[in-house]
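writing this on my phone so excuse typos. first protein, seq and then structure
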Amino acid sequence: MNIAFIHTIFPGGGAERISRDIAMSINAGFPSKYNFFIFAQIIIEEALTEEYNTPFKSIDTYPIGKSETRAIESLVKKHSIDAIVLISRRIHDIKGFRKRCGCKVVFANHGEPFHLRYELALNRRNNRFKDLMWKLYRRKLYEDWGYALYKAKRSCIKDYENCDKYVVLCSEYKDIICKELGLAPGKDHISVINNPEREVSDVCYDKQDIILFSGRLEQFSKRVDRLLRIWGKVMDDLPEWRLLIAGEGADGELLRRMAREMGLKRIEFIGYQKDMTQLYRKASILCLTSQTEGWGLCLTEAQANGVIPIAFGCTGGIREILSPDGVNGFIIKPFDEDNYAAVLKDIAKMDEKERMALRHNAVNHVKKFSLSETAKKWDSLFSSII
């Protein structure tokens, strides 16, 4: 079978890593059964390491804009693609594409259900007029009157209707979509497949007094400003601890300025890290303060490396990764920053024996999201539609 993953940028962030790991694990578990391809608008050549190249038979580009559908069609025909996997993105005229190509379509939703509602507010940033309209009218329309959620649901319906399989990250997401779209029990074409996590062969349990954040520095979803305020509440009580912020993004300078203005101590913005291995080996605690997360990859990465994760339980994906609370990580009621700060301080002041037990729990728990188990689920999905 010939399978193509459709991305905007490759390689980029977590979604691209997942495509790589899925292809790699299926090739290992089902040798000679599949050929995998990447179709992307932009290829980041300097990031295209051997590890990203090896699982794929070919990595091709297609143009940005309305001509993208025809360009993807050409690639589908060139490589005799049996199924494409849309990674949380849409292509123009998907109905026409399916009719002309006879190619199966899988929509892989890497976010929580209807997460588009959070993105709709971003349009207000484009210029002063839109910002003014947002303040006077659109904010009430989109937030108070629920228009953002309405539009997000309409988009989800279209994605669902225009694909052969719709993939979500946990059972709770499937239940929400089935209920909101009025899908009859057992009559849907939704598959639940968790994102995989690699097993770490040499976990370092000898940790330092380091609290770590890893992710994009942008306010729309990651909300690192919350972590800055939380650190401000606890830093004087944890004089031996440091906070490291790993990542870059559109709001990086804004967050650095906030940290300076708040007078935060022992905090360091260390920028984008190509390899997080050494940071995970040193860090004791990983903090996530997001508004929305489909499946927090940094949480499973932390668990695999014996780092204790703590996050707001804002989505089913986060709750599934960290449950039960206090055993494999810590789940904070959204978005109680005082409680978050109290729990963070409690973890930092724990007896080392208690923290060691949590580290071992996390490492054992994350094995349920192994590459081999994920490969079996994707193989079953592809076999069912092709």
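second protein below, same order as before
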Amino acid sequence: MSRRKPRSLSPEEKTLWSKVTQTAEPHKTPQALFTDAPILTPTKQTPKPAPIAPFKIGQKARPAQTAMPVPTAPVAMDKRAFTKMKRGKMSPDAKIDLHGMTQEEAHPALINTLLNAHAAGKRLVLVVTGKGKKRDDGGPIPVRTGILKHAVPQWLKQAPLKQIVLQTNQANQSHGGSGALYVYLRRQR
């Protein structure tokens, strides 16, 4: 590949450029820019942190709210059945445990299990996602814990599961708590 010669300026362009260079003023040095500017003081004071609750030796600590709650949709099923399900009084008809699976393994397994349960006329499926590993690699970007825990609710809102899922809710503590989901399926038509 050959290089082109740089184009030279025409006489009109040369005169225009000389006018620009005569009227241009050099920039101020960075130090001069900062010395001319007035120093601004913050007017608002930072709010004081909330006081720490008193703690006595031997007292049990309150559990921290670290788990993100599963976004709940409005109740689409029977309110009585929903309350019963939420309290852990309904026993699941089927269960799938996604522990130790990657997203690529878990997504088809979830689809297969829920479609088979729906075809068999089952209504309540317990999906165990796990709470996720608590790890911090010390990097500047925080790492989200529980990849499956956050991905499964999104998968349930996508086709082909969207058509068969009537309601989802976080499982009761007796069935896994925040590491599991109740998936209530629609009736077969």
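The chain has a mean pLDDT of 80. thats all i got for now
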